Amino acid sequence: MDFNLKYIHDKKINVAVVLSAYLGHKYIEPQVKSILEQEYDIARYQLTLYIRDDSQHRDEGMNKYFTSLLSDPRVKFIDENSENIGVRKSYYELLSYVKADYYLFSDQDDIWNKNKFSIFLKNFMELDSAVPILLYSDLLLVDGDNKSLNTTMKDTVGKNRNCNSFSNRLLDDAITGASMGINRLLRDIVVNRENYFNQIVMHDSYLGIVASLSGKIAFVDQPLTRYRQHENNVVGIKSKKYSKVNPLKYFKRYKWVNQHYKQAIIAAHCVKNYNILPENQKLLDALESLHDSKRFAYKNYYELVHNARGITDKIIVSYQWLIGIKQYESNN
Q1: Which residues of 11-42 are buried (b: 16+ CB within 10 A; e: fewer)?
Q2: pLDDT in tens, 95-125
Q3: Which domains does the chain have, with CATH numbers?
C-alpha cells in the first residue's frame, strides 16, 4: 500500500469528506456550508468534499444548488447521472473513487460544529496509522428545524459509547455513520475486497467490525454533529435507554442478530490476509463453527445464557441460540 507515515509528514494531509445525497434539497445546503466553513490549519490539511447523488432524478432545487457548488474547488461530484444504488453501495463508490489520507463521513441533513474537522484530525494524529483506525464522536440530537432536543446520542442510548471491542461491535450499533471517520488503511482493506462489501448490512457497522477485528476504534466524547431527527431519516434514533450488553434482550431480535453474525463472518474473511487480533480469534472460531450446530434450540436458551461465564461466553451462547431457533422454526 502507498500509505505510510512519511507521506503524512512530507505533504499536506488530504482529508476527504464523503457525502451520499438522496433527494436532499430541504436540508443539504446548511450541511455543506458547515463542512466548508470548518476551522483548521489550511497550511497543513486539505479538505475536499466529495458528493455522490443517489437520487437519479434530481428536483429543480437540488439541480440549482449543485450547480452553484461547481465553482468551488473544494467540492467534487462523482458518478454524475448514475443510477440509484442505495446508501451502502453509494458510500462504497465514494470510497473507491477517492484516495486520501483520512475520510470523514457525512449525512446530507446534519450540521457539523466548526471544530469537528480539527478535533478529528488531532485525534487521528495521536493514533497509530499503521493499523486500521475508526474514530467516531457523540452527536447532539436536533429536530427537523435544527432545534436542540437537549440530549446527545450517548445520553439517549444510555450506554458507554466507548465500548469498542469486537464483542461489543457484534451486539451493538453504537457507531453512527454521520459521526465517523477512518484512516486510509481501513479504507484500502474494505475497498480492495468489493465482493465482501456487497454482502454487508450497512457501511458504518461493517467498518466498525473490521476495525475492531484488526485495528483500533476510538471515541471522541464530544457532540460534534447536530444529528437531525425527522420523518425522512434513513436511520435515526429508534429507541430509548439500553441496558448493559445482555444477550437476553436479543430473544426477540434474532433476525437483527443474524445480520450482525453474518456481517462479522464477512468482516473476518475481509481481514484474514491482513491481521486479526489474537483476542478476537477465539470468538471468531466459535461463531464460524455454529453453522453446523444442531444441539441448540430456543427452549434451553435461558438456561444456557444464565450459566455462561463472562461476556465472550454469553455472546457465543447467544449466537448458538440464534442458529438453534432458526433450525427449530424451519422444522416446525
Answers
A1: eebbbbbbbbbbbbbebbbebbebbeebebee
A2: 999 999 999 999 999 999 999 999 999 999 9
A3: 5-228 (3.90.550.10), 247-330 (no CATH)
